[in-house]
Amino acid sequence: MIGMAGKDISSAGSRQLEGIIIKGIGGFYYVECEDGIYECRARGALRGGGARSARITPLAGDRCVITIHNDGIASLDRILERRNFLLRPPLANLDNLFIVVSLCQPQPNALIVDRFISLAEYKGIEPVIVITKLDISDDNGFGDIYRRAGFTVINADYSSENREFLDEIRGIMKDKISAFAGNTGAGKSTLLNALCPGLDRETGETSKKLGRGRHTTRETELFSLESGGKIADTPGFSSFDGEFAEFVYKDELADTFREFADYAPDCRFTGCSHTCEKGCEVLAAVRRGEISKSRHASYVTLYNEVKDIKDWEKNAPRPRR
Questions:
Q1: Are the CB atoms for 142 and 196 separated by under 8 Å?
Q2: In the chain, what percentage of residues exceed pLDDT 90?
């Protein structure tokens, strides 16, 4: 069994432990504690431990309290306060989001990359860009766009004998929970298998007609790295659509484009949308080449998607977690 720092909070007649949920399937949750992994059923009135103690659905990555009863059966009693959570894939307390981008087959899509980054920034998750298929295509400056914006960009060069990029990724992942996202066919499964050989994640072939691959993972599960930290193996983490879509609303969107921060305070008008206004310093920085045109174009697209959403619509019922 894999060790994980956990706190023993036993009471008379039973034993209570703190741990982390590594997987949930069929109504059972597998919780990793200091002394092993326990299969648990969630209590019917399970609640979170935050300021709003609302009913909550357990997710992989949740810190929790379980009880080992006298008959040996374990129950999942309480979810501890989350730092963040995602609806799709269902995952809590994520530290890093590695966005895997292939230079060809499929071609890089800046809007998809920027959409992932925006959501990660909004959730307090650190985005890291990993570029693949360097052996069959040139970078053409794609990685530099994100380096200049202030992100870590890693070239996954499998043709190199030492593969130092794997050590760099492991260093970022150490003692953290990390997930991998990107277009299907970009090389997520290959990268996951290289980082965690015991994972044996099936790699899906890319469809030439659609430019995308088959989804091969069924549920979100956390796997431990020998070097420290956990990988979240996630189902189909490649798009934002349907009823599980998450959006960053217009009044917070600019804050998720970190390179805007040096310019936005100097805009002529309060509440500048940074899309078309005269006196907008963000637009001036784009014209001067200090902010990437493609990054700003993605911002405008995302802004236009949410600009007409009213305040009351933000509070409309959404999938509960």
A1: no
A2: 54
CB 186, CB 106: distance < 8 Å: yes
32: nearest Cα among 68, 5, 70: 5
Question: How far is residue 234's CA from residue 270's CA, in Å, rounded to a whole number?
Answer: 40
Tell me the two tokens of residue 149: 């914006």
Structure confidence by residue, pLDDT tens digits, 115-138: 999 999 999 999 999 999 887 777
d(CA 271, CA 200): 49
- Cα–Cα distance, 284 to 290 (Å, whole number): 9
Q: In which residue are the tokens 């935050």 written?
A: 50
- In terms of DSSP bridges, do strands 206-207 and 212-213 run parallel, antiparallel, or are they unpaired? antiparallel
DSSP state, residue 11: B
The residue among 210, 201, 188 whose CA lies nearest residue 106 is 210
According to DSSP, residue 56 is labeled: -
pTM: predicted TM-score of the whole model, two decimal places: 0.84
CA neighbor of 38 nearest in space, from 9, 10, 65: 65
> Cβ distance 204 to 184 under 8 Å?
yes
- Can you read off the two tokens belonging to residue 65? 């309290």
